[in-house]
């Protein structure tokens, strides 16, 4: 298949998300075959995964918070709308201390990564992601909700929220993009 017939599935429109830099450690550049290569240490992916799932459990994005704050002011809301929005804002306030998550069911970890051909990871991507999920669920006050089958009619809680669903894709470029989801 040539580039002219390729179309990215579900391309995203302009990303208006505000990002922050966690660290400049664990990332460097190198050159190979006259091309710039992004080199990522396995520890960096683990740290990113930990931070992502901790943030998912405790914080809402600023734009989402603003939408909730606007509900009681829009003039078209019902009593139920106001109650729901205010309750979610109270819950977010409590969760933002980083001790209790916003939701009791902190979900199955699902991770999708799109890794450019000019990105090299020193180590095992999947192991780093899995270890990041494990550390987050063990160290934060997050509920283990994954179960594993023992037989056709019996299952047991895995006790660590693993295995995570990890889907990694190869793409063009020198970026490694992640989507972290806590499916409830």
**Outline, from the CA principal axes?**
globular
Q: Report the uncertain regions.
A: none
Determine the strand fraction and express it as a percent band: 25-35%
- The strand line-up of the biggest sheet is 1-2-4
Element string (H = helix, E = strand): EEHHHEEHEEEE
Give the N-to-C terminal Cα separation. 38 Å
Number of helices: 4
Tell me the domain tally: 2
Biggest sheet descriptor: 3 strands, mixed
> What is the residue-mean pLDDT, rounded to a whole number?
92
Query: What helical percentage do the residues reach?
Result: 25-40%
Please state the structural category.
Answer: alpha/beta
- Radius of gyration from the alpha-carbon trace, in angstroms: 20 Å
Number of strands: 8
Layout of secondary structure:
Layout: E1 27-32, E2 35-41, H1 42-58, H2 62-70, H3 79-95, E3 108-116, E4 119-122, H4 125-139, E5 147-149, E6 155-157, E7 165-171, E8 176-183
Parallel strand pairs: 2-4, 3-7
Antiparallel strand pairs: 1-2, 3-8, 5-6
Helix pairs in contact: 1-4
